[in-house]
Amino acid sequence: MPHEVAYGAVLTLKNRRTGGGYLHSHWHLYPEGVGARQQQVTTYTHKDENNRWIIKPYEDELDVDTIELVHHGDLVRLEHVPTGRNLHSHKEPAPITKKHLQVTGYGENGTGDPNDIWKIQIVNGKDGDIVTTVTAQLKLVHYLKHCVLTTTGKQLPTWAYEQQEVTCNPNVRDPYAIWNVEDNIFSRLPNVSFEVYASGFIERFLESHAVMLQGNAGLKPKEGEVTSRPWQWPINYRGQFFSGSNYRIYLLGNPIIWWGNLLFLFLFIFVFTLSSITRKRGYTSVKLKIFYDHYLGACKWLFFGWALHYIPFWAMGRVLYFHHYFPALLFNSMLSGVILDYFVGVLTQFIKEELKSSVYHWLIGLIMSSFIYSFYLFAPLSYGMSGPYAHDPNSTMHGLKWFDSWEF
After folding, report:
1. Which positions ≥6 away from 282 have C-beta within 8 Å?
2. Contact at 8 Å (CB) between 83 and 109?
3. How many Å is the Cα radius of gyration of the chain?
């Protein structure tokens, strides 16, 4: 692409906000009651023909015989290529952020009114500086309303296809009101290598991770989609359908393991608290001393791993699913194994020496058998159920629907 931007070039403008989208418009109008009923302007995070704008002088016609570059401080119009309407703002509130002004597409075939005029400013630029592709950080200040083109990052409703809100902010210091020219299509200027625009490894590394974090945080559920909340996961409150064909797959935790994990989690907290209090008071119990000396280190790290993979979800606003608990479940299961080994060992202390080994192995065998049997009972959830749903008395799964919230 050309390194410098000239009048008549077809541009795409990308917001500098981390994970920001392209300045975008389409044929659809704002609905009744949402500012002026003019063409919608949004940001869209994917490459699209509707992201293209022609940059033109604010009052003169384009001169096809000369090449005139765009400079810091120029007054310009931006005409949307597919629809021929100009980027426009006026004294109407924005769709979501009511303190900002609405931004629309207005006019016909590039002809509009004075509310289509914007002043280009290069961040830290001075008079005479040329607007460049990618490297120049730009602000577009509305000539009459003295507000700055920005994106709030807020998701618009379905009438705008859930794209992000674009507004004109009266606070011209808005840190998210910075744009880059990403595509610059102009055949009469020489192209330069993309290496001119390349950023360093560290900058790319940090930005890519910031984009992933922001994109992940902004995920919202689709209409009618079944989601869950963190409090539901440890108690196995409800599962999630993975398929609804003839063989239905339903993601649900094995109740014996799930509730056993919850029990052992509370037992760890109880034993840890009890052993800590007794040690502080100078009371020595052989059984609690065994826990403190041989089991506590492993238990603390496993409990920390469980908390680290579970508690942060309580603060997340993004869409959450049942499977988000699985990493925490792994740590909880390992913690359960350690606590189970401790309690089985404590119980065998009350058994005669010659019976200890037999009782220990019988207890472990009984516990493992319960796991295997519960897997056998609930295996159709994972391997595919057919026939009536479990609420039907004729269903083979009828007796296993222990909660109304289980939907299989």
Report:
1. none
2. no
3. 32
Relative to beta strand 164-169, strand 138-142 is unpaired
What dihedral do alpha carbons 220, 223, 229, 233 form, nearest 10°?
Answer: -120
Give the Cα-Cα-Cα angle 365, 366, 372 (nearest 5 degrees): 85
- Quote the longest CA-to-CA distance of the chain: 104
Residue pointed to by tokens 């963190």: 230
CA–CA dist 237, 248 (Å, integer): 19
What pTM did the predictor assign? Answer: 0.60
Q: How far apart are CA 105 and CA 78, in angstroms?
A: 10
Cα distance between residue 303 and residue 306, in whole Å? 5
| Cα(212)–Cα(176) distance, integer angstroms | 18
Among all chains, which residue has been given the structure tokens 């108690």?
Answer: 235
Of all residues in the chain, what percent are helix, strand and coil, respectively (each to 5)?
Answer: 35, 25, 40
Q: State the amino acid at position 78 in one-letter form.
A: L
Contact yes or no for 261/329 (Cβ under 8 A) = yes
Please check whether residue 378 is in contact with residue 255, taking contact to mean a CB–CB distance below 8 angstroms: yes
Q: Would you write out the chain's pLDDT as a tens digit for each of its 408 residues?
A: 899 999 999 999 999 876 779 999 999 999 998 989 999 999 998 999 999 999 999 886 777 778 999 999 999 999 999 999 999 999 999 999 999 999 999 999 888 899 999 999 999 999 889 999 988 999 999 999 999 999 998 889 999 998 999 999 999 999 999 999 999 999 999 998 877 777 788 988 988 888 788 777 767 766 666 678 889 899 988 888 877 667 788 888 888 889 999 999 999 898 888 878 877 777 766 666 776 677 777 888 999 999 999 999 888 878 888 888 999 999 999 999 988 888 887 777 777 777 778 888 888 889 889 989 989 888 888 888 877 777 778 777 777 888 888 877
Instruction: Tell me the CA end-to-end span of the chain in Å, nearest whole number.
Output: 56
Give how far Cα 181 sits from Cα of 128, 135, 299, 304, Å: 18, 8, 54, 46
Query: What is the C-alpha to C-alpha distance for residues 41 and 27, in angstroms, rounded to an integer?
Result: 10
